[in-house]
Amino acid sequence: MDSLFSELANAIPGIDEAMSFAEMLKLVQTMDYSVIVFDTAPTGHTLRLLQFPATLEKGLAKVMSLRNRFGGIMSQMTRLFGIDDEFAEDAILGRLEGMKDVIEQVNKQFKDPDLTTFVCVCIPEFLSLYETERLVQELTKFEIDTHNIIINQVLFDEEDVDSKLLRARMRMQQKYIDQYYMLYDDFHITKLPLLPEEVTGVEALKAFSQHFLTPYQPPVGNYTVEELEQKVSMLGQRLQDAEAELDRLRKGKQKA
């Protein structure tokens, strides 16, 4: 019996993926909307969800093999859970087979680029770049169209940024943004800014949505001559600091 329950547990797909796919079935089958957006979980959860049809097929095969091996035990189990119909086992398996057919139909829609596309959302950091590449590779295996990447939380070179920490962060982000453009040169890439305020409410969402149509440009202020001279002086000082740091690194390298 321990072996039986162990194999039954392994035959049942993940409940999270099952519930998510059930919601997909409801929405895709009704077709009451012109566009349906699935805001999926991080990469690992999403890939398990897309693997669900294959997982269900394996689970059904396992259940069928258990049925053949253990004969009437499964029938006794159905009665144990209050199902008295002697054909309950066949009815359950029939429902599962029917569900599998519907899921396969939905899966075909997912593979149709005219009906479905996948938009990858990431941030300019190493781990996010790695996960995005893994996702794109797996979507290609699943034959699901993907040609859009959104890079979120990008720090732009604002006029009033005078923080070494922020500028170091911008340099790091730029390194990974360049890698995104190098890896996905045939993708449509959209960069969205990290804002000082939270985007909540209809009006804020409408204003933020404009960045999908027009590339974000940092605001440019109106400066007096004195402010501009001060800004030039500050930039000159930064250049001197950078050159001094470069000399220090070169000297350290020569000693090594």
Give the overall form: elongated
Q: In whole angstroms, how far apart are the ends?
A: 67 Å
* Low-confidence spans: none
Counting structural domains, the number is 3
- Sheet with the most strands? 3 strands, parallel
What fold name goes in the CATH topology slot of the largest domain?
Rossmann fold
Q: Whole-number radius of gyration?
A: 28 Å
Question: Can you write the helix and strand succession as a string?
Answer: HHHHHHEHEHEHH
In CATH, the homologous superfamily of the largest domain goes by the name P-loop containing nucleotide triphosphate hydrolases
Q: What does the average pLDDT come to?
A: 77
Count of helical stretches: 10
* Percentage of residues in helical conformation: 55-70%
**How are the strands of the biggest sheet laid out side by side?**
1-2-3
Provide the structure class. mainly alpha
Count of strand segments: 3
CATH class of the largest domain: Alpha Beta
By CATH, the architecture of the largest domain is named 3-Layer(aba) Sandwich
Strand content: 5-15%
Walkthrough of the structure:
Strand 2 (148-154), helix 8 and strand 3 (188-193) form a beta-alpha-beta unit. The chain has three domains: 1-115, Rossmann fold (3-Layer(aba) Sandwich); 117-221, 3-Layer(aba) Sandwich (Rossmann fold), CATH 3.40.50.300; 223-256. Helix 1 (2-11) packs antiparallel against helix 4 (52-70) and helix 4 (52-70) packs antiparallel against helix 6. The protein contains ten helices and three strands, in the order ααααααβαβαβαα. With 256 residues, it is mainly alpha-helical. The chain has helices at 2-11, 15-30, 43-50, 52-70, 73-80, 88-110, 126-141, 164-183, 202-209, 225-255; strands spanning 119-122, 148-154, 188-193. The protein has a three-stranded parallel beta sheet, with helices on one face. 62% of the residues lie in helices and 7% in strands. The mean pLDDT is 77. Residues 225-252 form a coiled coil. One of its GO terms (molecular function) is ATP binding. Keywords: Coiled coil.
